[in-house]
Specification:
Elements: H1 8-18, H2 22-31, H3 39-54, H4 60-67, H5 70-73, H6 75-93, H7 97-120
């Protein structure tokens, strides 16, 4: 983890989500160092690739909502990574343009629903 510049907090988050499979994600992040020099993107892509290959996610709603809970716990951050993840997922799963549009609509509907709910909650 230190070789790819992961912080203790990042490793801890991965362990909370993936348990002993965290090692697979860190190893994959190490493998993609050459193709992705940004450490934050690299671990994000490694996590996504793990979910695609090992957990059979079918779309970004699976990943961002059901697998990682990012929609609920990292709402402010999610839109800044969405397009990166969408491009990588579309490439890996060979989505058509129509599939990309349909998954965008489905995810954004869920995103907006969660945002409306969050805004209605007392601080």
């Amino acid at each position: 983890a230190a070789q790819i510049h992961l912080s203790l907090a990042q490793v801890s988050e991965l362990v909370d989500k993936y348990g002993t499979n965290t090692e697979k994600i860190i190893e994959h992040a190490y493998e993609i160092v050459a193709s992705e020099p940004d450490a934050d993107k690299r671990i994000l892509f490694a996590e996504l690739d793990y979910a695609l290959n090992e957990e059979m996610i079918a779309n970004l709603s699976d990943f961002l909502i059901r697998r990682t809970g990012r929609l609920y716990f990292e709402r402010k951050y999610i839109l800044s990574i969405y397009n990166l993840l969408k491009e990588r997922t579309a490439e890996k799963l060979q989505w058509t343009d129509n599939q990309i549009k349909a998954y965008d609509i489905a995810f954004m509907s869920e995103y907006e629903s969660v945002m409306k709910f969050a805004q209605q909650q007392p601080a």
